Protein 1
Amino acid sequence: MTVINNTSLAFDEDQAMILDVARDFCRERSPIGAVRAQLDAPLGYDQALWQEMVGLGWPGLALPESVGGSGLGIRHAVGIAEAMGRALLGTPLISTTLAAQLVARATAEERVDAFLADVAAGVPATVALLENPDWGSDQCQCLFDESGVLQGAKHFVPDAQAAGWFVVVTRHRELPALALVRADQLPAGAIVPHTLIDETKRAATVDFSGVQLTPDAIIAGEQVTVALCDFYLLGALLTAAEATGSAGACLDTTVEYLKTRKQFGKLIGSYQALKHPCVDILMAIDSARSFVYHAATLLEDGSLGRDAEIACRMAKAQAGDALLQAGDRAVQFHGGMGFTYECDAQLYIRRAQWSSQQFGDALHHRKRLAALLLDTAA
Amino acid sequence: MSATEQELNAFRQQVSAWLADNKPADPGFLLPQSFMEVGTEQQLEFLREWQYRVWNAGYLGMAWPKEYGGGGVEPVFQSIVDQEMRRHAVPICFNVIGLGWAGPLINHIGSEEEKARYLKGILTGEDIWCQGFSEPDHGSDLGNAQTRAVRDGDEYIVNGTKIWTTMGNFAKYMILLARTNPNAERKYDGLSFFLSPMQVPGIDARPIRKITGEYGFTETFFTDARIPADCLMGAEGQGWKIAMQTLQYERGAEAGAAGGLAFVRVLINDMIEELRDMTRDGEPLLRDPVVRDQLVQLIMEEKANALCEKRGAIQALGTDYPFSLQLSHKLRFSEYGRRMRQFAVGLQGAAGGLYVGDAQARQGGFWQRAYFNNFSTTIGGGTSQVQANIIAEHVLGLPK
């Protein structure tokens, strides 16, 4: 056993086609002006644009055709996330995709088909998971009683404002369980939006207290635990893909400025003090992209294996750090301009702070990688 | 017609079996980890014998034309051989400047006569090649090379000094960059490229002692050395262009090498296994949280390098920054190697202060020596800083 035992990297024609379409779509429909126009909007995205994405089949890409999906694998969603990240395009697509993955992986029972069909038809969904800021915590006080009434709140719920469905992580008989809650079941005032560092994103605290669950809405059993592990890893991967795209766009923005701004009679891009960090960032992005598509190569419809887990964690650790580096230097290298709200560098540095925390930061993943790589190799 | 997967698998098994049977026993002296570390006759003869056996078995230069000693098959066969050689951890094929740089160059742009004269000797190891590019005053600034070559009848008279000539004291031929026209308007246009003999009067290759205390390079002095005029490759004034093409092979940016291992790849896995029994604060080293995090970062870097190498071959994933992965290959691998080896020395506690020759040095001081020697990759073939400039300018389009 060696610490590096799997370096598979494949990219099929479907993936290439989807990546192409997604990149063109995001570039055309989400120029930076359109991104800025959504910063103050309550939902943070243009619903007509969302409907176009639904029309392209993206929410149901990895869902079976029987519920209206496209029957492709979750690895096909990776390129879309990257393309969206590149264009800083929000929308609840990633939250929705992950919510559907969690449910589909937790049970094969037909009673969740209505939920999956809604997702494929473009009803946004999200997973209500965290009760504190610690991605490594398994605290779960959001529980339902014997009559099926939920008590408790979840924080940092992504796209809660837009969601038609909530997949609430709860417990049943000492094991993790899921509860499917429709937005119209929530009492008024249950959703309290967070003010986020990344203004292209939306999240909220959601208080589920008093929601009456039907028995059909509760998904329990050992498979839920496995599905949750997959969910964390897929979340890390899609966030990594998105961050990789954002990092590339961020670097492009910086490089463009360095090619036009003159000081001391010279284009500032000719100075090695600015050039070399740009190359460092480029190589960090290249690494992130390689990890992302390596991880995508290893994704299965079944539960993720050890190599896939390693790949997803590496992708997230690498992409998060690459975007942090790109965003940080983007502000610095734009000089005084970079310190202003008007400069696009702020969009990227804000996205960087947001992305790096989603599904655990680099330290979180490296700590788990250490256990995976150094403790089992003996 | 392309080989089938079945054929390739069968071939891999055949190679693997041959390597298992023919892997040389430990010679009892330190073997060079790269072609830049061949310091003694004993090492040279051992490696020459090994390379000959590999070629003789048909496992070197497999994609080179048959009429010049090659195998005339698809490059994928050689790739399989190289992978298997790495896996079996056999010695390097030492004649790297011939196999990897001069050879592909001659193969791609050389005349029929040049191919016939030089290629086979490169493969067999009989003709050792060295490179005369860098000069004491012109390392990274190669275009400014000042070694002069003056045409005199059917000879050129060469004067000047080259440095960092790998195996200069053993070589039969040199790829030589010299100035034939000092008055050219652009400095680059005054350069010419020679496939020069080394064993002629007036060429003196003096071994240089490296930071490791060992040898491997020479400083090469030309004093009215007369070389035949037909050593000129291409035409006068084309030297810069040909040298740049050569550097593409050297930096791994262009294919065509004969194959064989140029260096022993030092992997993070080897380091982890080697250091597993070390302790820190009385606890196993690998339980130390700070060390663990550093190791994971290095593992990620090594893996990213391998993945980037693969991704470079997937066209659909290389459109954002064309040639980024190819042009950064050397920078990635060489800088990673330096950091990883330095870290390995640092992990050894007090033993990290020992060196080759000390009975208590771990693995005979392998990591200390490997760390020092790695600078040949971050400096040679264009320093990391020059590589960063190239990437910034050619990939990102930043101004000079």
Protein 2
Amino acid sequence: MSPLLLFSPDAAPFFSRTIKGMLYYSAAIRRLCDHGGTFVKEQLNEIFERCDGAPSDLIPILQDIQDVLGYLPREAMTETARFLNMAETSVYGVATFYTQFQLSRPGRHRIKVCHGTACHVRGASEITKAVAAKLGIGPGETTDDFEFTVEAVACFGSCALAPVMVVNDKVYGNVTPERVVEILEDLN
Amino acid sequence: MNRITITIDGKAVETTEGSTILEAALAAGIYIPHLCHSPGLKPYGACRMCIVEIEGMRGMPSSCTTAATDGMVIRNDVEQVNKVRKMTCEMLIADHPLTCLTCQANQDCELQTLSSYLGIQESRLRRMTRDPKPEKDESNPFYTRDLDKCILCGNCTRACHELRGVGAIEISGRGYRSRVAAFGDAPVLESNCVSCGECVDRCPVAALTAKKETVPPSAFTITTCIYCGVGCGLSLGTRSNKIVQVLGDKESIVNRGSLCVKGRFGLDFVSSEDRLTTPLIRRNGQLEEADWDEALGFVAEKLKAIKEEHGSDALAGLSSAKCTNEENYLFQKFFRAGLGTNNVDHCARLCHASTVAGLARAFGSGAMTNSIDELEYADCILIIGSNTTEAHPVLALKIKAAVRSHGATLVVADPRRIEMTQFASLHIRQRSGSDVALINAMLNVIIEEKLLNEEFINSRTEDFDKVRECVADNTPEWAEPITGVAAEDIRTAARAYATAQRSSIVYSMGITQHTTGTDNVLALANLAMLTGNVGKESTGVNPLRGQNNVQGACDLGALPNVYPGYQKVDDAEIHDKFEAAWEATLSDQPGLTVTEIINAAAEGDVKGLYVMGENPMLSDPNLNHVKEALESIDFLCVQDIFLTETARLADVVLPAVSFAEKDGTYTNTERRVQRVRKAIDPPGQARADWKILCALAGRMEYPMAYEHPSEIMDEIADVTPIYGGISYPRIGKVGLQWPCPDKDHPGTVFLHEGEFKRGKGKFHPTPFRAADEEPDSDFPLLLTTGRYLYHWHTRTMTSRTEGLEQICPPVPVEIHPEDAAREGITEGATVEVSSRRGTIHANAVVTERSPLGTVFMAFHFHEGAANTLTNDAIDPIAKIPEYKVCAVKIKAAADRPAEIGAI
């Protein structure tokens, strides 16, 4: 017999089994369109269409979602669980295991300050302090307007340029606290 | 299975091929330290405690993941192995709180046992504290999660995924940040946890503890659960005459230790303050306390007076599917032999009367044809009209296992998007009340596509041509507008069912509670016979009975037309047999059914009603009518453990005892007769129902005297052929499935093997008829009723457990978002739901679980009793009311009555 229709994307979520769960689910659906315009259900469906729904598709799907959305919103994980017909906690377990996955929405600009040995010796902590003074956030944080996310990174392998700061995909070498301010202001 | 022998520390251990070393050792009573092994879960090999040395193998493999092979020589309790274990254990203890004395798991902790076994005397490693220290998750009303004590063995997460198919928790994060988490690290109550407590049961330490189980029991009693018809084995831990712990009975064939939230956490009602402790007699309009002598005298006098003045048939009795087999037997014997009337019925009329009528006509026996265990090995399962995970949670585990472990195809036919659809290959959302059209169309497809089993039809059945003729025009295209199901889906379902090697039908009240209930059942019987899916393992037509002992109450003759064992009252030979056995003159006229009794009471034909453990004031359809009837009756006696809605109207209330306070037997949905054992003493003057009946019969000049329920069972066996070989010693630990005609018969796992009970299976044509009341312009929505996982029937028992009330407060009504939007109803809003028979208030739950045009309500809540709305139109054969379809309208309510609570 041919495989019968599996979970359609709008099928019941794992939530919906208790009354309380149902309320929770309804709220989750309401939040679907409430992600600052970054979360579009169609985008997910495009990703899903490229897979055949095997459990081994989980990590590639999560990577694709993160490529498109910049992180893994909760609802995207729920949708993925439905698509793969697995518990959403299984998706969450994988998403939290790998450091490559982000669970909170990052800022438009990602500022990575290197704290490798070379950069550390050449004043990386001063760089981080300068970023914090300018943006008001420390490593691992995002500004309230979702413009900037700051991260502390172990090493970029560009030790000759220490201290190094990477903004989005652009590498800035031999930065100074003064230069940091200029770079950030240029972004605006 | 081949027997093999292995040697552990010089001791020869015999085991079966395929078992692991650890299983073999534990079965032989040899302790191999372990933390992450739990029976029924797949080997995990995480804790590294069960490592052993095996001759001829390198290193120290874990015994839980290594299969035993013949001649294997294993070293377990030796220094070099224990040294490694000790180091691992010390690392586990390094961040485990050493607060054993004040820990709930003290003396019941596998880490403690292990540490003691390994002789760990000090914490040598630098103490580590988790940063930040995890906060206790107290969100769930039944259990506490304290991750500070978690050792990450994964028993809880694996039980949740593998055994229960729920997946509410999983090990998340990595390294030192690994933790058991619900989705998004939310409090567990906000997850999809169903509070079954399997994780609590399997936690080796105190990371998961039941909130109420603070003191260890002093005794355990193995008994049978009081809630649904699955009949799970319970182990009641008691102390100081109270239930202090509830565990699943791991030796029970039915549940193998698993329970649902009601069975594990919902037994607070037993020691509720509200229990009835003395008889009550109505004086001057008030129920006042009385003693037994007075109360029984009063009841006897009233019953005698009515019998003398108006004849025996002016009396009627409602027996109880909650009471034991013995009590049901005595009840109907008392009415038939003592009072001389066949007016005895019980709530099976309201749930599975159409099953009893339909399957008896088609097969000759109105019971589940196969057994619960067999479901796991079916190749295709058709669930129709059963919300299995909520109404029969532990049985649903077998179906989940069939799908997940054995690749079975699951087809769910249900208007609502119930949880089981998550496991289904196909979900058919037929309109409520259109089941016959759907099944007929499936029959049509199977006949048209020649997927039928001609050999079976020719050799085992009769009247097939009538059905062939009846469904000739019932094509899927014909059914599509009636059922709302795409013709192609009907074809897919029919092919899936017909082409699988072994197909099983599972149904429940979604099939039976219709004016076409008997037709629905007959149509399913046709489906099974057409494809030869009856009379062999893992097939059959399997009604899931609702109450714990509704099967037994039917078996023991608490029905107006049959004596125990479905022996007809109007069969002269049978009638004479019972007159001789009971030494009394018996009526040969079938009596009145529940619905007819209520009508007769309203019309004044029934003057006296005796109700044992039922609550028609909430469970019967068209409640306003029921209330009028019960208020108009001359004499109403209610025997119950609580002052139910019905008892409040009674003239006499007699305090009975709960299942934990008496001995007896229940018969579960798979015909398994199981023991109920007394664990504690009853409160106050409450007496077991069978004792009350005996005492009353004594005063009515029809003495019935028994020392113990086992004597009643012996009498049952004498007069009831299907129970002929059943006795207490034989029931033992695992029960006995009827038919069991004699003392040497091993019981029957599945029915109709080789020959149907009635000889040949009989096909019945079932032309489609519409429901009695369809939505129209005045009442545009269809109301269908059902249950929630967290409550039982009229909530008499479950409302006494605070946690159940917290998770599922009164009174929800589920409505599709589009219907809600049209009526301007938002989530949580108070709404007024009205039908032609009444109006109630409820809280709106806006959800796509309900199909467009249909609203759903559970009938549990007296605060907003769904049966105020339901239609009392009945099936002409089975006399079962149409609970599942009536027309309603719904609108936003101006105010919120206090009693319906807030969600």
